[in-house]
């Protein structure tokens, strides 16, 4: 049996599975493996599965499925579900980011705030393996953990009306990438030429919850070449 | 293949269906009709499957030209619908002719109106749905609201039989009533007093409300220990309580997760009534159990199903009109002959 969890019916269409309320990589991995297993096993009777940091919602059509019967079935399943049995490898994605010029409109502000040179900001931002705790806020938007404490900076007081797709930003203790153009208040320190969310793609979001992301600094020339398809970028190997 | 030509579109007219499920783990909102019940009924009245794509009008409708003979049904908000300048009824099958023009005006009652067209609107499916998601710029017509000049292709199908919903099944917000919700199961005991306050308060729907969510304004509810928490999944009808103590109810274009504490979830069967309340409307809430929520939903669905499966099959044979040219005294007239049901209005 897994770490202590609660399974509760939230409404006639939502079942909620909750772990302890903490941000923790191994707990979060368990969340995603459980979500995947539920999606596979209960595929016929559910509409959607939404995993987050420490919880999973299972969504049903209340006219088709009784959420209380499903609750019993999921509970029974999780009692026997041994997540160690599932062979899972953690995907690691290398995301190219240009931290220069127009692609980094808030770099000067952040480097002043953090009291370090832009080079040092880039060094610290490209150093960690960021775990993807969940995808939310916007289609394909990754909630990443593990930002260097020296790079923490509050959101902008006046959010921008439009942030370009691919923008890499910092908000408080979080870092993330805007997969689509959107309004937003994040401090923008770079941009990736990779299209992270594409409704026409077989798998619409490049990044999945449970992955690990690493940022790789590229020049403006490389940004241009990758964006125009003149240079190939392999997301999975450096 | 027939189509609808958009002569004029209201402020926020979009193509919607029952929503885009299966991609919320990738942060893709469900979208779809705000009043899924009204969309479903509109589809059934023209012989479509429940989830065919319809037009959703928000507060104002617009003007639409039909290039083909077809059948439509209008449900939800009353927008004083007219065909060729004559008022037409809602909640029944309407037979339109090639060249007809349908207009929808300002909502006299309700917010969201639906127009289903026999066969459905044939825009490409994106991630399994034709629903428009404007922030994501996908679905519907190029991921945006309709504009004058747009052409909406229709899926070819046979003319449906004539149906008219009895008033008893029409869920239009005529009378003020309470909206039921299921209190959140998270820390239910500790939160009981907030659930009590939520039921005591008189709320008004704030003008800052849209397809993403409705803001409520009333006496602020202050929560002990702050209002933020680790982001959790949310659903249609989730009631969030941000730091200012004024609840927000999440709706069709909601994000998939939220970091505000939650008071509960509005019953699916009360969502239709709730979303159709205009800004400024007074709302009161009442707690109820999940079993009761499901029972109420099923009872209504059973009544609907009984109506649609038992309606006398007054099939309008060859409902497409026959047109004749008649010349009398050197003037040529067009005469249109179409079989009518005994209770069908002539416009």
Automatic annotation (TrEMBL), chain A:
Record PANTHER family? 5-OXOPROLINASE SUBUNIT B
Organism this protein belongs to? Fusibacter paucivorans
Q: What is the lineage of its organism?
A: Bacteria, Bacillati, Bacillota, Clostridia, Eubacteriales
Q: Which gene encodes it?
A: pxpB
Q: Which Gene Ontology MF annotations are present?
A: 5-oxoprolinase (ATP-hydrolyzing) activity
The entry's keywords: ATP-binding, Hydrolase, Nucleotide-binding
Q: What is its EC number?
A: 3.5.2.9
Which principal EC class is assigned to this enzyme?
hydrolase
Which SMART domains has this protein been placed in? Answer: AHS1 (SM00796)
The Carboxyltransferase domain covers which part of the protein?
Answer: 5-207
Q: What is this protein called?
A: 5-oxoprolinase subunit PxpB
TrEMBL record, chain B:
Q: Kindly state which keywords UniProt assigns to this record, in alphabetical order.
A: ATP-binding, Hydrolase, Nucleotide-binding
Q: What is the superkingdom listed in this entry's lineage?
A: Bacteria
| InterPro entries recorded | CT_A_B, Cyclophilin-like_dom_sf, PxpC
Query: One Pfam family this chain carries?
Result: CT_A_B
- The Carboxyltransferase domain covers 25-303
Keyword Isomerase belongs to the record: no
PANTHER family per record: 5-OXOPROLINASE SUBUNIT C (PTHR43309:SF5)
Q: What is this protein called?
A: Biotin-dependent carboxyltransferase family protein
Species name: Fusibacter paucivorans
């Amino acid at each position: 049996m897994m770490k202590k969890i609660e399974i509760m019916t939230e409404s006639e269409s939502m079942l909620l599975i909750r772990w302890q309320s903490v941000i923790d990589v191994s707990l979060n991995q368990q969340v995603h493996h459980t979500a995947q297993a539920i999606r596979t096993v209960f595929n016929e009777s559910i509409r959607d599965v939404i995993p987050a940091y420490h919880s999973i919602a299972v969504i049903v059509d209340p006219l088709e499925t009784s959420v209380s019967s499903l609750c019993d079935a999921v509970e029974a399943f999780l009692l026997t579900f041994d997540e160690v049995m599932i062979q899972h490898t953690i995907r690691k994605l290398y995301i190219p980011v240009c931290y220069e010029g127009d692609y980094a409109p808030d770099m000067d502000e952040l480097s002043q705030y953090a009291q370090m040179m832009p080079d040092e900001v880039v060094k610290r931002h490209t150093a960690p393996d960021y775990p993807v705790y969940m995808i939310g806020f916007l289609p394909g938007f990754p909630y990443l953990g593990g930002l260097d404490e020296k790079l923490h900076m509050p959101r902008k007081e006046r959010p921008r009306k439009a942030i370009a797709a691919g923008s890499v930003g910092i908000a408080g203790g979080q870092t993330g990438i805007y997969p689509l153009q959107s309004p937003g208040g994040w401090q923008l320190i770079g941009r990736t030429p990779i299209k992270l969310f594409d409704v026409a793609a077989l798998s619409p979001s490049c990044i999945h919850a449970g992955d690990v992301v690493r940022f790789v600094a590229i020049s403006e020339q490389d940004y241009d070449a990758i964006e125009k398809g003149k240079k190939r970028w392999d997301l999975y190997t450096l | 293949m027939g189509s609808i030509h958009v002569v004029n579109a209201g402020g926020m007219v979009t193509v919607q269906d029952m929503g885009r499920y299966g991609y919320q783990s990738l942060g893709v909102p469900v979208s779809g009709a705000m009043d899924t019940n009204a969309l479903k009924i509109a589809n059934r009245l023209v012989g479509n499957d429940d989830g065919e794509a319809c037009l959703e009008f928000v507060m104002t409708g617009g003007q639409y030209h039909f290039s083909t003979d077809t059948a439509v049904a209008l449900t939800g908000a009353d927008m004083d619908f007219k065909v060729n300048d004559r008022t037409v009824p809602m909640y029944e099958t309407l037979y339109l002719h090639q060249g007809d023009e349908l207009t929808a005006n300002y909502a006299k009652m309700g917010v969201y109106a639906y127009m289903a067209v026999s066969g459905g609107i044939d825009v490409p499916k994106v991630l399994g749905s034709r629903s428009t998601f404007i922030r994501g710029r996908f679905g519907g017509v190029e991921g945006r609201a309709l504009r004058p000049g747009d052409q909406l292709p229709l899926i070819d199908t046979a003319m449906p039989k004539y149906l008219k919903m009895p008033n008893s099944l029409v869920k239009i917000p005529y009378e003020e009533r309470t909206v039921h919700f299921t209190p959140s199961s998270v820390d239910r005991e500790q939160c009981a007093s907030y659930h009590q306050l939520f039921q005591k308060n008189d709320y008004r729907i704030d003008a800052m409300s849209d397809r993403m969510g409705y803001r409520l304004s009333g006496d602020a509810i202050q929560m002990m220990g702050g209002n933020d928490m680790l982001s959790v999944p949310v659903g249609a009808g989730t009631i969030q309580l941000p730091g200012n103590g004024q609840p927000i109810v999440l709706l069709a274009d909601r994000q998939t997760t939220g970091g505000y504490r939650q008071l509960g979830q509005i019953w699916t069967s009360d969502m239709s009534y709730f979303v159709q309340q205009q800004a400024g409307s007074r709302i009161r809430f009442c707690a109820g159990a999940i079993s009761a929520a499901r029972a109420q939903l099923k009872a209504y669905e059973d009544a609907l199903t009984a109506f649609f499966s038992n309606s006398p099959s007054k099939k309008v044979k060859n409902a497409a009109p026959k047109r004749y040219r008649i010349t009398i005294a050197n003037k040529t007239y067009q005469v249109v002959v179409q079989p009518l049901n005994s209770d069908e209005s002539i416009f």
